Amino acid sequence: MLYASDISKAYSERTLFGGLNLSMAAGDRIALIGANGSGKTTLLDILAGETLPDSGSISGRRSTTVGYLKQEPGSFAGRSLLEEVLNADWEVVDLSGRIADARDALSSTTDPAEQRELMDRLARLDEELEAAGGADRDHEAKAILSGLGFKDSDFSRGMLEFSGGWIMRAELARLLFRNPDVLLLDEPTNHLDLEANLWFEKYLSSFTGGVVITSHDRAFLNQVATRILAIEPGEVVHHHGNYDDYLLARERALEVKQAAAARQEREIQRQMRFVERFRYKATKARQVQSRLKQLEKIDIIELPRATRKVNYSFPEPPRSGSDIIRLDRVDKSYGDNVVYSGLNLTLERGDRVALVGPNGAGKSTLLKILAGVLPIEKGERRLGHNVVTAYYAQHVLDLLHPDNTALEELQEAAPSESEQSLRTILGGFLFSGDDILKPISVLSGGEKARMALAKLLLQPSNFLLMDEPTNHLDITSREILADALGDYQGSICLVTHDRTLIRQVANKIIEIDGGLPRVYPGDYDGYLYRKQQEAEAKPASPADDSNPGSTPEKASTRGRSRRPLSAREEEERALSRKARQLASRIDEIGAAITEREAVTSELEAMFANPEQFDDRSQLEDTGQRYQMLKEEEQSLWDEWERLSLEAEDVDRTLVALKGS
């Protein structure tokens, strides 16, 4: 479908990539990854034909159509949302125009021969329109818009009424509705909430064309990608599998490379010891020169820099009371739109809360109320004893002083910290060497975001509130943020669509829907499990007193002996039953593994003495049996590991439920 052959691109003296090859087939979903500034967007521009490579070529089938989603939206003609999406399918729009022209011509002619010709043309055009999906266009466009989070009432709204994030969703909807053969998607998840992300994952998983996509959402890449194209320092790496598969492969490759580099270093040292020992002996001059020439020819193995976990030494915050914040009977509206009415919520010391829910449910509004940056109409917001808040949102990037260097910015925020300590913290946020002396004004969006995060975490706060902190951050920077939040000693409440960050940080999930918060103690996977259980659970049917098989005495006995279970008790009962089932199966697997290990050990002892076998065929049969047992053993271990992890999640959720 699309081919890149030996392409390279450089700006000034900096080479982004060279010798890059890419072959895309239908069904390929290629994740394009690399650090900020590595050339991902440039490569997408080249694949889309909007930028020429310095060398190499791009080719594809003549009929292949390419759709390109950039990080900035295209122009809109001022139509309604639905009209803009419908008009994105140029082929159907052209066919509809030609049909309208033919009908106009037919209504104005009286020539029988011309009428027959126009009727034939209309029949052909109608067939082409039907083949292009013209009859179902409205339904398909609305389905895509709904999947991306638009409401039915949005379809007739003009494009000028939408904010920037919603305009980007509309741009994505236009592209998906066009249904090109190849999708080039540059950060499409930046403006999608969790629900829209999940819908988009399913859409791409069933998309029959080819996809090249960049995203900083690790969970999204793991669900979508079938191949990885990584632009790494000095090389371009291809890998089949998702993002986590690539990381494992890179780790194994790094281990191999480290071992090879160590062997090479030992060989170089051995050769150099010979050179140093005999450099000034005339009888060894020829051998010394030969060794030096050999050393010059060695292609030195350069190990890639690996992102390492940094332990942060942030100021120890003051200890707060047990209650961090309490909202009592809070009302909040925007005009006629009531977001919260009589809201009650308490967060406690040690809570690390992720606010989740559909777009427009009021997550950011609640976060702003908690942060004290949004007034309320009614009710009370009470901070706990000794609570010091810190609030991160996109506006904090504008509070950075453009003329300050990165180091100066932190020195102003924490004048009592030593320069070495600040340099260490900056290094943890990927500012090293001369980077710390760059003025804020020349930093990229991602660098400014990292700078603002470092500055915020240096404040001696004990309650951190964060609104979409991963915006503008690449995957490496997001891992650094997760590390920093892991070392933060206060309580946290955040809104983010990055599921990986939620998994790494949150110990409590609060779901917002319909203006009501629902608290789920435990981590994000526990929350998803409980949501799945709720969806699968059927409501208990009320007792039917008219059942002829039930006597009044029995019915009254049941009524006296058992009270209805609460929702929490029902959930605990279901989880306990699940835990017992998992424990039973895990025990069965353990026994099966033990049996197979005993047999394989016996066979290995036999293989050590081949004379025990009567003939070659018996040896081969035993070998096949051994191989089969080892495969079964591995399969059982895989199942044991999967069920053990699931059992741990269930146990964690049960403990959290009983303790809440």
Q: What's a concise summary of this model?
A:
The chain has 20 helices and 18 strands.
Descriptive notes:
With 660 residues, the protein is an alpha/beta fold. It contains 20 helices and 18 strands. The protein has helices at 40-47, 81-86, 90-108, 112-131, 137-147, 164-178, 194-206, 218-224, 243-278, 285-297, 363-371, 406-413, 419-428, 445-457, 475-487, 499-505, 524-536, 552-561, 567-607, 616-659, and strands at 2-11, 14-24, 29-33, 55-60, 66-69, 182-186, 210-214, 227-232, 235-240, 323-334, 337-348, 352-356, 378-383, 389-392, 463-467, 491-495, 508-513, 516-521. The strands form four sheets. The protein has a six-stranded mixed beta sheet with strand order 5-6-7-3-8-9, sandwiched between helices. Strands 14-15-16-12-17-18 form a six-stranded mixed beta sheet, sandwiched between helices. The chain has a three-stranded antiparallel beta sheet with strand order 2-1-4, covered by helices on one side. A hairpin with a 2-residue loop joins strand 17 and strand 18. Helix 5 crosses helix 6 and helix 17 (524-536) packs across helix 20 (616-659). The longest helix has 44 residues, at 616-659.
Topology (elements, then pairings):
Elements: E1 2-11, E2 14-24, E3 29-33, H1 40-47, E4 55-60, E5 66-69, H2 81-86, H3 90-108, H4 112-131, H5 137-147, H6 164-178, E6 182-186, H7 194-206, E7 210-214, H8 218-224, E8 227-232, E9 235-240, H9 243-278, H10 285-297, E10 323-334, E11 337-348, E12 352-356, H11 363-371, E13 378-383, E14 389-392, H12 406-413, H13 419-428, H14 445-457, E15 463-467, H15 475-487, E16 491-495, H16 499-505, E17 508-513, E18 516-521, H17 524-536, H18 552-561, H19 567-607, H20 616-659
Parallel strand pairs: 3-7, 3-8, 5-6, 6-7, 12-16, 12-17, 14-15, 15-16
Antiparallel strand pairs: 1-2, 1-4, 8-9, 10-11, 10-13, 17-18
Helix pairs in contact: 3-4, 5-6, 9-10, 12-13, 12-14, 17-20, 19-20
